[in-house]
Structure formats: C-alpha cells, structure tokens
Amino acid sequence: MSAVMITRKVRKWEKLPGKNTFCCDGRVMMARQKGVFYLTLFLIVGTCSLFFAFECPYLAVHLSPAIPVFAALLFLFVMAMLLRTSFSDPGVLPRALPEEATFIEMEIEAANGNVPAGQRPPPRIRNVQINNQIVKLKYCYTCKIFRPPRASHCSICDNCVDRFDHHCPWVGNCVGKRNYRYFYLFTMSLSLLTIYIFTFNIVHVVMRSVDNGFLNTLKETPGTVLEVLVCFFTLWSVVGLTGFHTYLISLNQTTNEDIKGSWSGKNRVQNPYSHKNIIKNCCEVLCGPAYPSVLDRRGLMQEDSSVSATPAAPSSSSSSSSSSNGSSNPAPQTTLVTSGSDCARVFSACCPLPAENHGSAHPQ
C-alpha cells in the first residue's frame, strides 16, 4: 500500500472557516441557521398573495387600478432588499494565516514581556486615534487578528464582521458594513408594505360591508381576517425596528455600540464617527461607497490530497507470457483507489511502479 499526492484547484469558499453556508458556487453566503429566514419569506409572500387574490380585484375596479400595481412594485422591492441582505457577505474579515498568527503572538509576547506564573497576562489591546479620540482595538482569539474599529466577532457565524451591527435571524445573516443599508431599506419598505396592506384591507371590508353586511363580507373574503391579524401584529415590531435604526443612523451608531453603551458619555467618550450632523450621518451610512468583499470567495487555491495505490496480483495471461520469456521477477501491476476525473492522471503518473521503488512513495 502506497500513497500518491495529487494537487487540485478548489474555490476558496470551500475552505473558509466559520459557520456560514454557501450556494451558487460561493456567490450566496448565509448563516447555517436559516429556519427563521424561511418563516420571513413565508409571511411576506403568503400575506401578499392573499392581498392580491382577495382585495386587489375589488379595489382595482371600485377605487383605482393603481392600487395593485403599487402593491406589486412595493412587494418586489421588499423581496429584492431581503434577498440582497440575506445572500451577501456582511463584511466578514479573513482570519490570520498560521505564519501571520505566529508573528502576532511574538509581537504580543515581546510587548508584554515575561508574565510571572500565576498572574493573568495583560489584555491584548492596541490603541489607535480616530478624530482625536482614542479607540481600542481588541484581539480576537478565534480569528487571531486585532479587529478593526467597530468590528466584532459573531458567535453564531463564528466570524469577525466589519462594522458589526447585529446578527438578524429574520434575514438569516449578520448585518454589517456591506449589507446594513439594504437591511435598513428592507425594514423601511416592509413597514410601508405592511401599512399599505393593512389600510386597504380595512377599506375593502368597509366598502363591501355597506352593500353586503359585515359578516357576509368576512364569509366572502376569508383571507381578509388572516391578513389583518398578521399585519396588525407585524406592524408594531417592524415599524418600531425601522424607527430604532433611523435613530441609530442619525447618530452614526451601530446596534452593538448602543447595547454596549460605547458612546453613552458615561466615560466622557464621544462617538468619533459621528459628524454631529444628522444629514451627514445619514448620507455616510446610506449613500456611502459600496465596499468590496475581502474574502475572495470564488478565488482559486491549490489543495494537496493523497490517493492510495495497492499492488495487484498479476493476471494468468501475464504470468504465462512471463514464464515463456524466462523472466522470474516480473514488475507488479498497481491498482489505484481513486475516483472521478483524477483516475487517468494519477494512473499515468504512478503506474507501473517498480518493486524496489515502493518504499520511496509518500506514506498516506
């Protein structure tokens, strides 16, 4: 039994650490826990389907045909922002390579000196100055890097995310530097869609109740009651969430910073990222440049893998031909244990293999 090393090219997303899942050859990136995301899709699509089936035909005839058209456009925008938020890289930072991690460890040990046994080593922190304000960069023991300002490690995705806001199970992804604006547009458009459907549900019930009565109207449109209940309970949470993030954007602050009280002023520490102007803060967050991903998910890398080769017994035809030729030690054949398109390449590289060279093959 011997082993042969082969090299093949793979996409980098196949070897990325963390707890993310990838689809479409690395173009789609999400968290592993996607159950609540499917619930979000079901609620939005289901409620809008009921609205288009029961209310829109009546309202288009008796009020205006623009009502279902505007609802369809708003629905498409909500779905586009949801999928854009859920399927994109939120700003995941690559982990340090083993050589880089070793170098950083040496730098930290040199800076801290020898710590006596039994004493806790000092925290791994670096200070940088941003707008005349000292900001601490914390060391991530998982990613082996000093996190950039405003970055944090997500325990669910197991990755450091730049300008980390929060992990949202409703969209099935982290919300960070690269998808925050789409998340905000999703919540805002979903609030408008919920208000829109809820309002015209009430209008539809009132208009039909005038002619047919309230109970008969509910019997003729059974989906209306379900729509009203879903919209009523969704309205408060979605509108409240949109209002909260509008407040954060006006201060150029993240949810993570607000929860931790990073710039609450109790330590006389001001937010170094705020422009002290609501319009400027909103323009920076919502109208700033689109940042590229630093992961290079679809890039190629080489991977070495070993393939085992087992010597096979010679066939009867080869034995008879060998005896007729007078050769007493024929070269053994090799049978490769492999699969896929690598068979021909590995076979041509390692077969036949002389008996005296078996020991020089790489062990498995």
Side by side, the strands of the main sheet go 1-11-12
- Structural class call reads alpha+beta
**Number of beta-strand segments:** 12
Euclidean distance between termini CA atoms: 9 Å
Molecular shape: globular
Proportion of strand residues: 15-25%
One letter per element, helices H and strands E, the order comes to EEEHHHEEEEEEEHHHHHEHEH
Radius of gyration: 31 Å
Quaternary organisation: single chain
Helix content: 40-55%
Biggest beta sheet attributes: 3 strands, antiparallel
User: pLDDT below 50 for ≥5 consecutive residues: which ranges?
Assistant: 316-364
Average of per-residue pLDDT values: 80
Number of helices: 10
Which tags fit this structure?
364 residues; alpha+beta; 3-stranded antiparallel sheet; 12 strands
Task: Explain this structure.
- This protein is α+β, with helices and mostly antiparallel strands and 364 residues long.
- The protein has helices at 35-62, 66-86, 98-112, 180-212, 214-220, 222-251, 255-260, 278-287, 316-325, 342-350; strands at 2-11, 20-23, 28-31, 125-130, 133-140, 145-146, 152-154, 159-161, 166-168, 173-175, 300-312, 333-337.
- It has a three-stranded antiparallel beta sheet, covered by helices on one side.
- A hairpin with a 4-residue loop joins strand 7 (152-154) and strand 8 (159-161).
- The chain is globular and about 85 Å long.
- Mean pLDDT is 80; it is low at 316-364.
